[in-house]
Specification:
23 strands, binds S-adenosylmethionine, 2 domains, alpha/beta
Length: 504
């Protein structure tokens, strides 16, 4: 981090959260004569003469610094002690930019930039989340308005701090009012990596490192999403989003443009909660009575999903809610009754959302109406780890198949003309994966597929008055259906090239 700095030993330097003084030691070794530090822990603060035992948040900072360097504390507001909350509540910068959804580190970043001279540098190591969470929008906009980033290192869950599993970034920001801004160097790990001195040296030199992509990006703009992707990828995503724009008519008089999203064509719902899956699962070797067959469902869990199709379903006990007495349960469903006995205690101890819950009932049959409805559906794991693969598993399931909690279901809305196979092929396209990686909810290497992030995926509707587009749709749907029957990915390349034509 220190070698990212362009300052020399005459620089005036600030370490706003000095801790044990790792940066201070290094700065001294470099020969820096003027260092100011802040630290609230008296024991730590006493270790270095240049460190004041005071809060950086409340401190009156009259000096303007050449360099602010450090590792700010990061704590969610709700986890802060009363003393810290009180200090923030009285702080003008906090009140101007932040609120109780924000993180303590945000004010350290913002106040540090305030304390810089024009041309001064901020070099911080911190978690990655502020670069994309909604609650850090004002911080990102502040950065955009007050200078530019020259370097961004994205370590993607690589272990840096013992015991912490956050995704870490190191950045160098230069305070500047110049409207002409240089590009920034970005080094991004595609997955968790082992960091060694040699790797760090290579990162600084921008020489190849396994799993690291180097990019030269334009500065981010206010109110826009910060996308750390190469220019060609960003351009392809821009084209995709432009291709998804449709005209909407408000009351038949006014026309406006909007980007069509998955929300416009699909209902999305997270799977149902049994409360103890293993107790509800019925082994294949049990001969069920007709009542039991009728009152059981076939379920796909996240582990059963692959790209395009699902593997083997599991049968689950699914007794109607009007069976409320154990004697009835035992009489009508003898095999279910026997099957559930070993787990009875655990079932009774389930959290039941405030309801009286017989042990043979599911905890929460949310969206049951949607799941029991007609038509094929698309299932996707609601959390997907993407470190080892460059796709997400959207799988087609037939009518009558249900998702449990670890799966999100996607159902075509009434009146949508695009086929479910087209929607499936579209969601599995590599460009959609890139969109999800850059614009979706990604924490470290885990993509989240709850209703909201899935809804916001841009959707390329077919222009049905175009013969070519109609033809493309039909071909894509047919090839996808055939591929699912054969359970071979043979057609994927052709399907993706047809989709590519629609997405450009
Ligand atoms: C992540 S550690 C920094 C470690 C440090 N860079 C080092 O070299 O050891 C954050 C430090 O910030 C301190 N801290 C927390 N709130 C503070 C505040 N309001 N003002 C100054 N320091 C603070 C903590 O006590 C902790 O030592």
């Amino acid at each position: 981090m220190l070698s990212l700095s362009k300052t020399d030993k005459n620089a005036i330097v600030l370490e706003p959260s000095a801790g044990e003084g790792v940066f201070i030691e290094l700065l001294k070794r470099k020969g820096c004569a003027r260092i100011d530090g802040y630290e609230i822990d008296p024991e730590l603060a006493a270790q270095h003469e240049c460190v004041k035992c005071a809060s950086f948040i409340g401190a009156e900072i009259a000096t303007r610094y050449d360099l602010v360097i450090g590792n700010p504390p990061y704590v969610r507001w709700k986890n802060l002690g009363a003393r810290f909350k009180d200090e923030l509540a009285a702080n003008a910068l906090w009140n101007k930019y932040f609120n109780s959804l924000c993180d303590y580190s945000y004010i350290f970043m913002l106040k540090s930039v305030e304390a810089l001279k024009d041309g001064g540098e901020l070099i911080f190591i911190c978690p990655e989340y502020w670069t994309n969470t909604t609650n850090a929008q004002s911080l990102r906009d502040y950065f955009c308005e007050h200078g530019y980033f020259s370097d961004f290192y994205i370590f993607n869950e690589s272990s840096i701090f013992k015991g912490a599993t956050v995704s870490t970034v190191v950045f160098r920001f230069v305070k500047s009012q110049d409207p002409v801004k240089p590009t920034m160097h970005v080094a991004k790990f595609s997955r968790k990596a082992n960091l060694s001195g040699d790797v760090l040296k290579r990162l600084l030199e921008h020489t190849p490192v396994d799993g690291v992509e180097y990019m030269e990006l334009s500065q981010f703009r206010k109110e826009e999403r910060w996308v750390f992707a190469p220019k060609v990828e960003q351009d392809a995503l821009e084209r995709l989003m432009a291709a998804c724009v449709v005209d909407v008519f408000d009351g038949g008089l006014f026309r406006r443009k909007k980007m069509c999203t998955v929300h416009d064509v699909c209902e999305i719902a997270n799977g149902m909660v049994s409360g103890l899956d293993r107790a509800f699962q019925i082994p294949d070797n049990i001969d069920l009575t007709p009542d039991e067959k009728r009152d059981s469902i076939l379920v796909y869990k996240a582990k059963d999903l692959t790209r395009y199709w699902a593997l083997r379903p599991t049968r689950y006990v699914y007794v109607p809610e009007n069976v409320t007495h154990e004697s009835d349960f035992k009489r009508i469903y003898p095999h279910f009754h026997a099957l559930m006995q070993p787990n009875k205690d655990a079932l009774m101890a389930r959290y039941s959302y405030g309801k009286e819950l017989p042990y043979w009932q599911w905890c929460f049959k949310r969206s049951e109406k949607l799941f029991s409805g007609k038509g094929k559906r698309i299932f996707v794991p609601c959390k997907e780890r993407i470190s080892a693969k460059s796709y997400v598993r959207f799988a087609l399931a037939d009518e009558g198949f249900y998702p449990t909690q670890d799966v999100t279901g996607i159902f075509k809305k009434a009146g949508v003309r695009e086929s479910i196979e087209y929607i499936l092929a579209y969601l599995n396209h590599p460009l959609i994966f890139k969109w999800i990686r850059n614009y979706g909810i990604v924490k470290g290497n885990i993509v989240e597929f709850s209703e909201k992030p899935l809804s916001s995926i841009p959707f390329r509707k077919i222009k049905w008055d175009s013969r070519r587009e109609t033809e493309l749709h039909d071909k894509i749907a047919k090839l996808t259906a055939a591929m699912i029957v054969e359970r071979k990915m043979a057609n994927a390349a052709t399907i993706n090239s047809y989709l590519g034509e629609l997405m450009a």
